[in-house]
Write a structure and sequence with these properties.
Layout: H1 9-104
């Protein structure tokens, strides 16, 4: 089909050309804005993930410091209890030794006791 330019077809051709240009620009701009929105959303998700990761790392560091200080506190407390217990056991052993010595010194020589 051959297009003949006359008074009746020129306005129609102009209209069709203008519609094609308008539709092409509209679709192009729509695609650009959809692409841009997707890129911004992806960047936003990456920022949120980085922020969440930093918060988790900070919490983990805090929990580790708390656990470490609790272990140190427990160690010191246990150390004090163990020292006290050992002193008590040594005192008891010394008392037993002294009482055995006092009892046996009367009947046996010093070297044997």
């Amino acid at each position: 089909m051959r297009i003949v330019a006359n008074e009746r077809t020129i306005p129609r051709l102009h209209l069709v050309g203008t519609l094609i240009i308008a539709i092409t620009l509209t679709v192009s701009l729509g695609a650009f804005f959809v692409w841009r929105s997707g890129a911004e959303q992806q960047a936003s998700l990456q920022r949120i993930a980085a922020s969440a990761s930093a918060q988790q790392e900070s919490r983990l560091r805090s929990e580790m410091e708390s656990a470490s200080s609790y272990i140190e506190f427990t160690r010191q407390r246990t150390q004090d209890v163990l020292k006290r217990s050992i002193r008590d056991q040594v005192d008891t052993a010394m008392q037993i030794t002294q009482s055995i010595y006092q009892r046996e010194i009367k009947s046996k020589p010093v070297e044997e006791v």
